[in-house]
């Protein structure tokens, strides 16, 4: 079981290193624009660029085009940004959240109740689904004689 824990820690460290590399590649202006609160940046690309340029950082100033590249916006994309569209999605968000929490809780319960930490359940499930995928169903066609 320590191997699983060590593997998780290794993956977390890889994610942290990737975040550090990304932060070092981004320019200072763009990094601050992405991480500053919306209340300070104003919520639009133009006001965010103005906010960062007035901080007095050294280097080239940032423009609104560098923050959000121009792209066509479809009518369906615009309609999803309305408050009414966000209210329609709220039940789906709750259902998805509850499903993920229930799935995570079941994994924790299996890990606590199984003496081997749920590895037997994982192997049984993986073997069952792999067998079904590879070999198909176990039913064989019957020959009828008339």
Describe the structure.
The chain is mostly helical and 146 residues long. 70% of the residues lie in helices and 0% in strands. It has eight helices and no strands. The longest helix is centred in the C-terminal third of the chain and has 31 residues, at 83-113. The radius of gyration is 26 Å and the shape is elongated. The N and C termini lie far apart (59 Å).
- SS-derived structural category: mainly alpha
What's the overall average pLDDT, rounded? 75
Q: What Rg do the Cα atoms give?
A: 26 Å
Uncertain runs with pLDDT below 50, 5 residues or more? none
Q: How many strand units?
A: 0
Q: What would you call the shape?
A: elongated
* Helix segment tally: 8
InterPro entries: CstA_N (IPR003706)
Organism: Mycobacterium heckeshornense
Protein name: CstA N-terminal domain-containing protein
Domain CstA N-terminal: 1-67, 84-123
Brief summary of the model shown:
By secondary structure, this protein is an all-alpha fold. It has helices at residues 2-25, 28-35, 38-41, 45-53, 64-67, 75-79, 83-113, 119-135.
Secondary structure layout plus pairing:
Blueprint: H1 2-25, H2 28-35, H3 38-41, H4 45-53, H5 64-67, H6 75-79, H7 83-113, H8 119-135
Helix pairs in contact: 2-4
GO biological process, one term: cellular response to starvation
Protein name: CstA N-terminal domain-containing protein
Domain CstA N-terminal: 1-67, 84-123
């Amino acid at each position: 079981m320590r191997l699983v824990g060590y593997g998780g820690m290794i993956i977390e460290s890889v994610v942290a290193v990737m975040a550090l590399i990304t932060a070092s590649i981004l320019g200072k202006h763009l990094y601050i624009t992405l991480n500053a609160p919306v209340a300070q940046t104003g919520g639009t690309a133009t006001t965010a660029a103005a906010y960062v340029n007035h901080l007095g950082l050294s280097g080239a100033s940032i423009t609104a085009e560098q923050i959000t590249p121009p792209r066509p916006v479809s009518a369906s994309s615009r309609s999803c940004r309305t408050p009414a569209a966000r209210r329609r999605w709220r039940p789906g968000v709750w259902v998805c959240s509850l499903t993920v929490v229930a799935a995570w809780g079941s994994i924790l319960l299996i890990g606590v109740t199984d003496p081997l930490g749920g590895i037997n359940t994982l192997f049984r499930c993986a073997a069952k689904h792999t067998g079904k995928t590879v070999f198909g169903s176990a039913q064989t066609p019957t020959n009828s004689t008339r």
